[in-house]
Design brief:
8 strands
Length: 252
């Protein structure tokens, strides 16, 4: 007789089928978000803002009110929603290009203002949905469709370390980077997401979680090789950890 080791979170839409590429971690990340919303009993009080990219599919899988923003503008929309309805729980779910390049001004200034919203950012070191172009987190030497000889420092500069940058903003209550490459790290990722959500509930300020994710299709790798790359390459550049926690006095 089979033993059930987990159940689908109640907040996830019945009969859903993930449309992500095999080995993509968006499905895992969305499940963790759903579990945290369930456990904090937030479903009926939540508004999500997502923008263009693979992240936009969140409204197909999680049963909460969701606004689709123009590319890079999810944080701006979330700010407006939270200010208009301060009693609502408001979070964004975005990719790194959306959050830290096209929408960097919106993201950074919301953090500096200490907007009481939570932001989840998937870092897969490229623009995943639109063809694998170089993004703000593309690693030095990494080949993409727009950097066929690799990210060149003299031409493109360094990748952005988002969690560290946002930890420096005075309005940020919590900033962390996590990874989804192994089961233990998935558990740590869920704990970080839940803490970020709890800090919004407590009204402490802007909370942020950067999630390291694989992108097997655009990296031209098998799912296993892609997760090896997260562990062997990405985590050396983008070191997981809590970079700011105002309740535990952690700050870069």
């Amino acid at each position: 007789m089979a033993t059930q080791v987990f159940k689908v979170p109640d907040i996830m839409i019945d009969g859903f089928k993930f449309g992500f590429c095999p080995g993509c971690d968006h499905g895992v990340a969305m499940r963790l978000v759903a579990e945290c919303l369930d456990e904090l009993n937030l479903q009926e009080n939540t508004i999500c803002a997502s923008a263009i990219g693979c992240s936009v599919c969140i409204y197909d899988y999680i049963n909460v009110d969701t606004i689709e923003a123009p590319h890079g503008r999810a944080i701006a929309e979330a700010t407006g929603v939270k200010r208009a309805k301060p009693d609502k729980f408001v979070f964004t779910y975005q990719g790194d290009g959306d959050f830290a390049s096209i929408g960097l001004a919106e993201s950074m200034h919301a953090a500096l203002r200490g907007e009481k919203i939570s932001a989840i950012c998937i870092n897969n070191t490229n623009y995943g949905m639109t063809g694998g172009q170089l993004g703000p987190t593309t690693m030095v030497g990494q080949v993409t469709t727009t950097s066929p000889t690799g990210r060149n420092l003299e031409y493109y500069g360094y990748p952005m370390k988002i969690a560290e940058q946002f930890a420096l903003c005075d309005g940020v209550a919590f900033s962390a980077r996590v990874s989804l490459d192994t089961v233990p790290n998935i558990r740590k990722a869920k704990a970080a997401i839940k803490k970020a959500f709890e800090y919004q509930i407590k009204g402490l300020g802007f909370s942020f979680v950067e999630i390291l994710s694989s992108c097997p299709t655009n990296w031209r790798m098998t799912p296993q090789k892609a997760h090896d790359r997260v562990r062997d390459e990405m985590m050396k550049v983008f070191v997981p950890g809590v970079y700011k926690d105002i309740l535990e006095s952690k700050q870069v």
